[in-house]
Design brief:
Layout: H1 23-32, H2 34-45, H3 48-67, H4 75-104, H5 118-128, H6 132-143, H7 148-155, H8 159-177
């Protein structure tokens, strides 16, 4: 058995995988990308705790894959896709549990979500009017700040499809959110 030596307290250690995913990259992700991805996914699924769990689980998977030698080119995009897929599975489970409880005559919300501010509830209600594809595209663009090209890669659709989906979503959201001119141009770069 080999002894493990830990560095003295206060000494910064860079832990790198063979593919370049470092502890520094993980820390930068947590500081810069984690909050916006969790917020966007929580709007998508309706539960902040579920979104946090999904993003944390996806980040752990990214680290594990990196340790096995797999290369992850864009950590934020990869984590978003994996967390979104995880939330889809979670959502199917929640719906199945609700149906089962309904069949048994029980009530209650299994997500145990925390109360949301009124303006957030309005946006969530407005987003609920959209189709699943419109909601996902809208959240990825406006909440997560993804470009049209990035959304196309994440969803596996063309940039034209992303643009038309965003246009239709804005037409539906405008009256629900009290917006007079929903004809905002979709930019290729959603980030400020």
């Amino acid at each position: 058995m080999q002894a493990i030596r830990f560095p003295p307290l206060g000494v910064e250690v860079s832990v790198a995988s063979p593919t370049g995913l470092t502890e520094g990259a993980i820390r930068a992700f947590v500081l810069e990308d984690y909050p916006r991805i969790v917020t966007g996914l929580s709007v998508m699924c309706g539960s902040r705790p579920a979104a946090e769990d999904a993003v944390q689980e996806a980040l752990a998977k990214a680290w594990e894959r990196s340790e096995r030698g797999e290369r992850i080119e864009e950590l934020a995009g990869w984590v978003t896709v994996v967390a979104r897929n995880s939330l889809r599975s979670w959502s199917r489970r929640v719906r199945a549990e609700r149906r089962a409880r309904g069949a048994l005559g029980q009530q209650g919300d299994p997500s145990h979500g925390t109360p949301m501010p009124d303006d957030h509830v309005d946006v969530v209600r407005a987003l609920a009017r959209l189709t699943k594809a419109q909601r996902e595209t809208t959240v990825l663009h406006y909440y997560l700040g993804m470009t049209v090209a990035e959304i196309g890669r994440v969803l596996g659709v063309s940039e034209g499809t992303v643009k038309s989906t965003l246009h239709r979503a804005r037409q539906i959201l405008a009256p629900a959110l009290g917006i007079d001119d929903p004809a905002e141009e979709v930019t290729h770069d959603a980030r400020p």
